[in-house]
Amino acid sequence: MAHPTRLAVLISGSGSNLQALVEAMRRDPEFGAEIAVVISDRADVKGLQRAETAGIPTEVVRWADHPDRAVFTNVVCDVADRYGAVAMVLAGFMRILSPDAVDRFPNRILNIHPALLPAFPGAHAVDQALDHAVKLTGVTVHFVDEQVDHGPIICQEAVAVLDDDDPETLHARVQEVEHRLYPAAVRAFAQGRLEIVERTVRWADE
Ligand code: GRF
To answer: Residue with the nearest Cα to atom 3 of ligand 1?
Structure first.
């Protein structure tokens, strides 16, 4: 088999999607990827502990230590480069990267969003779905482009909103789907099975 695709996984918090990726890679020798480094913009988050437990190197790049978004972004990309990562996987990373990231990793940054884009972009997708009283929300995995929560969609899955949902119960069911969908998308990417044609992402068979 070809060398595994080396990934930088970017987090800001709990890291449950990171954990799902780690476990999927462990279970599946054909996965085709390895996590070279986990980068967090915040110290002392659970996701960093998860990475350390899994034996993955970690780096913290604090937002406040950098003068602007472009410098912060380039430092994050430098760290990814230094660990030999060829792609970046955003897993609950709560900072918006500048377009420099897309220049440096074109069509090689993936993101997961807890709604069916283009509905409810931004940081409050679960609350907004409840406020809007939609009957269906869900999960989107997409490539990152220069706009927030906008790039070519890799996969989506719907999650029903129940009458008695609150933000915690709905987010918990959304996350169950995330933990299945993100590993599947990252695996297909790592295996070179995703082709982008304009906005359309085509999945090649295994
Ligand atoms: C996920 O719901 C993801 O969709 C959003 O941030 C959350 C991160 O959760 N972008 P976790 O840190 O992976 O547990």
So the answer is: 92
To the query of whether residue 179 is one of the catalytic residues in this protein, the response is: no
Q: Is 152 in the pocket of ligand 1 (CB under 6 A)?
A: no
40 lines ligand 1 (CB under 6 A): no
Distances (CA, A) of 181 to 17, 102, 177: 10, 23, 6
> Using one digit for the tens of pLDDT, what is the confidence trace for 137-191?
999 999 999 999 999 999 999 999 999 999 999 999 999 999 999 999 999 999 9
Check if the beta carbon of residue 38 is closer than 8 Å to that of residue 48: yes
**18 Cα: distance to centroid of ligand 1 (angstroms):** 9
84's CB contacts (< 8 A; 6+ apart) are 6, 36
pLDDT digits (tens, 9 = 90+) for 13-45: 999 999 999 999 999 999 999 999 999 999 999
CB 73 near ligand 1, within 6 Å: no
Q: What's the pLDDT score for residue 130?
A: 98
Ligand 1 in reach of 121 Cβ (< 6 A): no
**Nearest partner of 47 among 23, 79, 25, 17, judged by Cα:** 17
Please return the burial class of 157, using the count of CB atoms within 10 Å of its CB with bins 0-12, 13-18 and 19+: middle
Put the strands of the sheet holding 33-40 in their side by side order.
Answer: 58-60, 33-40, 5-11, 87-90, 109-113, 136-143, 153-160, 200-203, 194-197
The identity of residue 124, as a single letter, is H
SS3 at position 127: helix
Q: Which of 113, 107, 115 is nearest to 134 (CA)?
A: 115
